[in-house]
Each structure stands twice: as structure tokens, then as C-alpha cells.
Amino acid sequence: MKQENRAGSFIVIEGPDASGKQTQTKRLVEWLRSNEIDNIDPREEERLIRSMPGNYPDPEGEQRVDDSIEDGVWHLSFPTYGQTPGGRVVDSYLKGRLGDRENLSLQEKVDIYAADRKQFKTLMEQYISRGGIIVCDRYREANLIHQLVGFEGEAWNEKLEEIKSVDSDLPDADEVFYLDISPEEARQRMSEKEKDIHELDDEYMKASNLNGRKVAEHEDWSVIDGERTPEEVEKDLRERVSRIVTGL
What we know:
This protein is an alpha/beta fold.
């Protein structure tokens, strides 16, 4: 549902690794910009751009992201990697510079990612409230997908609520779309990719994939079949997002 007192919209794209999040976020942003659906004043957008942390957005300096803010649509990705102070901490963690994943506590891992998002809290709220549209490739929901791996039963439910509370002060998405693919499909798509410490662990990747599907159902996200062609997934997302941003 569209949040009250918002002139703009906030869309989140989630899914397991290799599900096509980056591709679909980019295509959705391009489509929204071409249709001029936003309501934000260009002067207000420029003011907010000047308030961004670090060198954000700087996609030329950070090849792993396509973030940009223009024509009333903010293409936002997490982690922000080398563009911001918070993103650089996540980058260090993913490269193993903070130690092995198993040697860090759940709270430490959750906080590393949360700090990256929280540096944008006020700016996100302002952009949406003034009529801009945010399309985000991974958001706070990603912590649920990855950090609940290894928990079962009541412990899973308890940790889910605990992790959600860390980011509860951030803006809620109008809709979270989960691009669902099987572990086997994910492994095949990632066969030629340079991998971080998570992606090098096949068992962890499979577990996080299956856990993501469980979380999506529990949290009532909109599940999209990500194993179709990119064009079919794009068409599906456009139709659903169109109803959200236009209110029809």
C-alpha cells in the first residue's frame, strides 16, 4: 500500500544473488524516467543531491553500482560500496578484511549493513515526501534474507523481529518485489562471476536462497518469477509498479 502523506513512491527490488535485481532495477528506473511520472521540483532534487553523503552518487568511481538521481527518480543500491563512509565498511566486510563471517556476531553483521542505509534516512524521507520516486536494489529486507540463515522454528521468528527492529526507523517501501529463482539457477548464473566471501560459500548461498523465499512469504512481499526471460520479468514489474506510482 502507498504510504500516507507521500507525494512520491518507494519501490524495493529484492531476491537471492543472481536473480536479476540490478538489471531489473536499472530497466525500471529508465522506464519511469522516460514516462515522467514523478512530481518533485527539479530545484528541490538538486538541493537534495548536494546533501548526499561522501561522493554519492558516483557510479564512475564505483563500477559495481549504477546509482543516479535525475528526472525525479533515484536509482539507489545497497551496499553503496566505495561511494560513502558506510558503504566502505560493508565493502571491507565482503572482502574479508573484518575477519571471517563466522567470527562476527549476528548483531555486528546486521549493524554493518544497517549503518550504510541509515546515512540516507533523512534524504530518502525528503525525496519521497517531495514527490520523487526511489527504486532501490536491495534494502533493509536483505538483512532478513541473509542473516536469518541457520535459524529455525521459534528462534527464526525471534531473530526476524530483532533484525527488523534495527532498521525500523527507516522509510517503509510502498512495495517489496522479490525476484524468486532456485538455488540451482542461481549457481548456474554465477558460475563466471567474481565472488565475495558470501558467494564463495556454496552451502551458505543455497541456504540464503531458500531462506529468502521463506521470508518473502512470511512478510507478504510480491513474489516475481525470476526464472523467466528478463523481458518477461520487466513487463511484469512495469505493470505492477505502474499501479503503485499512479495510484490506479
